[in-house]
Amino acid sequence: MRSRCLVVSIASPLGRLPSFPCAMLGLALLAAHGPHALAEGAFSLTSASFRAGGAVADAQVFNQDDCKGGNRSPQLSWHDAPPGTRGFAVTMFDQDAPGRGWWHWSVAGIPATVTSLPENASSSGFLSKLGAVEARNDFDTDGYGGPCPPPGKPHRYIITVYALSTVDLRLAQGRPALMFDHEIGTATLGFARMVVNYGR
């Protein structure tokens, strides 16, 4: 029987935090209790496009209206996934966007044999050749949509690779990112992530 993903809320020393879907639970715990709240083991994420805590390069910035970037999805590599991993998913989420945040990218159906994505995997056809599927992001386009926050304080972008207990989440190309988030949460064995910044 498939486990269900419940919406949870978390108490913190600052009071009760808002409710979060299961796949966002790690972010909520980090916010409430600091960086040592979750033990992530050896599962790790690196990138030739980003460095943790660094700024997003123009190549990864969205290309529309007053954002003039390359809109190329980042190169990513991951190592030491948990035992039992049968597939991977990748997300990119802006936690500083107003309201519930902003989904920039969500990919599922990456086979367990794959441990890296080249830069521009979203637009180049690399992901579709793997049999992976991409969600509709909050720009209302399928695939990767890079950072493009309003002018002001830089936003933080969370890139996460999830190790999953299945490669088949019964998701279709272009379904909403929130649906991907829910299904990823039902099958997550572990995750590796980094946070990068971008402002205008």
From TrEMBL:
Signal peptide coordinates: 1-23
UniProt xrefs under Pfam families: PBP
Keywords of the record: Protein kinase inhibitor, Signal
The organism's place on the tree of life at top rank: Bacteria
Gene Ontology MF terms in the entry: protein kinase inhibitor activity
NCBIfam families xrefs: YbhB/YbcL family Raf kinase inhibitor-like protein
Protein name: YbhB/YbcL family Raf kinase inhibitor-like protein
Organism, scientific name: Paraburkholderia phytofirmans
